[in-house]
Amino acid sequence: MADPEPSSTTEELARILDQGNDTAMDTAEDQPEDEDEGEQESVAKAGYCIECEDYYRLTSPNVDQPAELTCEDCADLFCEVCFHATHRKGHRKRHASKPLSGAPSQKKAKPPKPSSKPEPEDEENWDVEPTPLDSATLAGDQPDLYESPAEWFVERSRWIPLRLTYEERKYLRLIEAALNVSEYTDKVDTLGFGLSKAKRIVQQIRELCAILSGLVLAADYKLGQELFQDRNFEANADFYQHVFELARRHKIMNPEKMRTSYGKLVYVLMDAQIPQVRAMLDFTCVKPIKTVHSILSEHNALGLLRDDLITIATREISSEKRSRREIQKDIRAKERAIETLATRYATDTLSTEMVRQCLYSIGDNNAFLRVNRDPCEKMIEYLKKFFHPTAPADAKSSLAIRSGKGGARLSHDHAKQYAFDGSGADNFFDAGSCIDGRLTSAWNWCSSIEKKQYWPVFLLTGFTSFDGEW
């Protein structure tokens, strides 16, 4: 019996499928190779830095930065500045690199004289300029972008402490621990043991140094053995001076830290400077604070502070009322300025990392001043603008206060209140009505809470101090 012929519907379906397959293949063959232009543009040109290619593609498409290094781990090509910028921290810091064959050799040259314009080879790199500073910037702030800093940064850097390094932060934790367990302020003022006050001070300072020595030995046995093998405090004077100095430096940059232990440290260092105590100790515990100016002056690199790029490298980038694109643009400009300066002013004795530390320290100081100083400056500006120092224009513009009215505890006339006068007291009702007086009263109350009858209730809740630590 003959097989039945396929139905017309089946034949039509097969024909349509075959025709669609052929059409799809023809369409794929006729597709132009460069249709996905965006994907092709994402590939860096051979022989050029991949970071510069990504950065300037949208803003300066004709800028090409030749590659100088190849990262053996990333398998990418970089110019020297971009390689150090992208491999500065994290796991990438351990990546190995090697120079490309035919790349120009990097010779160290003397720092160039500062000029009002970027160097010729960097003119295209700075085509994307960071956003200028606000015109309402308070007086005394750093110079505007690309404005010659002259001696402004040189003078300002004398009072800017150097940011702590990673190794110094280890010692910071040790000195904080030693101060927390030390009973210096309790025993120095206690009469007993037939010792004079000078001898009690020397005894407690030696005990604090011994505690610190034990912590160092526990943290790093090899270093502890080298430093304290002979148990000679005078021989290790440099070490103790360094540890005490970095604690002071940390407190200057972070006033909210070490609220309890720093007071004890100040008492120790003040007592250690008494001539009789210094003679008995045979060494001094105090040395000058390490600042940006002192480090650069020591290595003959003060030219860094006069370079035009330092304004960009140290400015604070604010996100207020700005788009993400503007913020990212300023961040990239700041990073490139930092790396350029680090490469330009590094020497055999001054590493690029130390140059970065100096620049970061200036940036930290700018951020600190903006948060802590600028609001006060703005308040004083408003006070002078809207109020007369002695004679108010009318009752609404008078700053006078009267006890019992509007929560005031004291009576001040307009002129006295205009001068921000405040008075402290040991209770709420006698406390001053101004900020200074209230803060003083709060400090007095907090310092004597252990003597209150309800102090055990605080202890039951797990309270230890007002420093925010539990």
From TrEMBL:
Residues 1-11 have a biased composition (Polar residues). Pfam families: ANCHR-like_BBOX, DUF2009. This is B box-type domain-containing protein. It comes from Sphaerobolus stellatus (strain SS14). Residues 1-42, 93-142 are annotated as: Disordered. PANTHER family: UPF0652 PROTEIN C16A11.03C-RELATED (PTHR31560), UPF0652 PROTEIN C22H10.08 (PTHR31560:SF0). Residues 27-40 have a biased composition (Acidic residues). It comes from the Eukaryota. Residues 44-100 form the B box-type domain.
